[in-house]
Amino acid sequence: MSKTRFARYNIGQVIRHRLYAMRGVIFDVDTSFAGTDGEPPADGTSAGLVYRLFADDDEIPYVASIAEHDLEPDDSGEPVRHPGIGTMFEVGEAGNYRWRRHALN
Length: 105
Fold this sequence. Notes:
Blueprint: E1 14-17, E2 23-30, E3 50-56, E4 61-67, E5 71-73, H1 85-88, E6 89-91, E7 97-99
Protein name: Heat shock protein HspQ
Organism: Bradyrhizobium nitroreducens
GO molecular function, one term: DNA binding
């Protein structure tokens, strides 16, 4: 029997890596990731969740897949600079990211 897992973060949310200088905007959550790198969090509720995000690290933009326990919210208000963001998200007046109603081609 599989356990129900709840994502801690939302699509369009800006997050940062808790150890490295990397920030990003979440565009997908993989709930089926088996995970082999490290131990799950002590609470056990979010083991195995991996977030895919448009990321930047002050050098180059890239797409990253990062385990939930390695992330934390980013409340800096600074925009994330990645060319893929504009194809999936609109930027709101408050700097938040929300899904585009229609994909850009």
